[in-house]
Amino acid sequence: MPPVITNAYKTGNPVTSNIITQYTKPLLSKPHAVAELIQWGTIIVFDNLIGHYDRLVLYQSIGPLGNSRRSLERGLYNSLKSPNGKLWLIDNESAFFYQSKYQGPIYKYTQLLKFNDRMLQTVCIFQSSLVAELRRLSRQPSAFHYLFDFAGSYEPLLANVILDPRFELFAKIFNTRLGQILEWVEHCQTLYNAT
Pick from 95, 123, 111, 93: which is nearest to 9 by CA? Predict the structure, then answer.
């Protein structure tokens, strides 16, 4: 995890364009540091949206000295890094964990939900293309069903998959999370003029 995000997690002050400007010289000494920082923002949004529970959750016990159950220097769990610095997310099966705990359509905040929200609030810098796609997705009657149908248009066997009984619950929570992420983006843009 980049130190600037670790610091934002500890202090509760999100990474903004002003903070990046303060870190410009150290970041420029590492060719892919700014790009990686922006990728981390996208990863945080993605994992928050899908409820991924084992990529970032290992960082949730960051202590006062910046240590955690997983060494922050070892890199991002369930990811690969290409020679040009691009982060590739793998093993995305660990999504919707917190939804699978529910027996009914009640949206509860568990420790994981609070952690995901806290991680989201570490960043106020977003790729404009990501924000545009999230907004476009939010205009769908159901973002979850839209994506499911989109996947089905490329994978005909998806129609034969037996859906989890909580499928509609997952859809509802996914759509709710999308709305919450966009609220945070709007908050950032209002306070920090972030994109």
Answer: 123
Q: What is the mean pLDDT of residues 28-55?
A: 80
Q: What is the largest CA-CA distance in the chain?
A: 53
Residue 133 has pLDDT above 90, yes or no: yes
**Would the pTM of this model clear 0.70, i.e. be above it?**
yes
Q: How far is the C-alpha of 63 from the C-alpha of 69, rounded, in Å?
A: 9
Q: What are phi and psi of 113, to 5 degrees?
A: -60, -45
DSSP state at residue 164: P
| Residue listed under structure tokens 């994506």 | 147
Q: How far is residue 106's CA from residue 131's CA, in Å, rounded to a whole number?
A: 28
How much is the pLDDT for 93? 66
How many C-beta neighbours within 10 Å does residue 96 have?
Answer: 19
Q: In this structure, what DSSP letter does residue 158 have?
A: G
